[in-house]
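In this section we walk through a basic example: taking a raw amino acid sequence and producing a predicted 3D structure, encoded as discrete structure tokens. The instruction is simple. Fold the sequence below.
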Amino acid sequence: MEVVRREAAAARAALPQLDDVRVDDALDRVVELLSERADEVLAANAADVAAADLGTGALDRLRLDAQRLQAIADGVRATRDLPPIERDLHAWTLPNGLEVSERRIPIGVVGANFEARPNVAVDIASQVLKSGNAVVLRTGSAALGTVTTIVDRVLRPAFGDAVGLVRVPDRAGAEALVSMPDLVPLVILRGSGSSTAALARIAAEHGVRALAHAEGGGVLYVHAAADPAKLEQLVRASLDRLGVCNRLNLALADTRELADVVARVCGELGVAVADTLPPGREWANEPDRVATITLRLADGVADAVGIANDETSGLAAAIVTEDGDAARAFLDGYRGTVAFWNAPTRFADGFELLGTPETGISVDGFPGPRGPVTYRDLCLRQYVVVGDGTQHR
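The resulting token sequence is shown next.
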């Protein structure tokens, strides 16, 4: 707790430095330092990889090379090139003469907890800082060496104490980060479902808002009026990568014939089909069975919508059909963050939809940032009221 409190307090003290011009200049410096100090970052990462006890997929996400470092730098450059947040939204005058304006202000210090993905440290930090907030990062033991080097040799030389790091590999560091509403009122959680969900519960108990990117999995509903050729294309496009949250996870088909099309294409792609397990099971989180989807029959649009709403994460769902009425019924009934018609759920992504890098995808069921969360969402609403001293209730 004391380690996190110290980092968060230092980050909060650095907030006055984060005006738009300074942040953009610092992001330019991050790009330069990623190149100048690439050997240091890669050496730290090689040590992390050598010491890691991870599955093949997780180990691949941990590993950095020159090409991946360049991709990280490209992401920072893209964030730097985004326009500053428009702070002043609109203004009006009340009948009594009070002048009212609505504006966005920074939250303050935003925490970020993520698993063994060093690129996430830079991605989230750059977006949080672009929004005018300071950040405290926390990762687990597998990536801590790499992330420490990135913070100390790249991010802090550019931003100073506005970037904090929880230098504790134990899970207690993550639990402390989500337990300090006075210093870190918002924490972005990225990682596997069970671990992230547990942290979100701890955050709720302490009054900390968590934007949790925990559960994923795309749904594809194959309506009876689906074009088989279009269906085949969508299945292929939805399974181009298997270890990502927005890939095809659950297919629902109105007829056995259309289900057979899905199964055939999956077979050609080397993807297994399961039909007896819970539809919300996210295969991307299972290294041993990541090349799997769940396939079930549905009894029309209402049944498919009910399954997608009640038994899956609510990340994204698509319908493939040539029937416009059926498509509209599905799009209107689905309550998840992104609904698609004849398009793959792989486009449930902030950069693809909004042209802006995302900190994650929130599947919250209450008002606030939902779907792809970008730097524009990391703000608080504030009203400013100006009178002349004569107004009264």
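Looking at the output, two observations stand out. Residues 2-214+363-383 form a domain with the Aldehyde Dehydrogenase; Chain A, domain 1 fold (CATH 3.40.605.10). The CA atoms of residues 87 and 104 lie 5 Å apart. In the next section we compare this with other chains.
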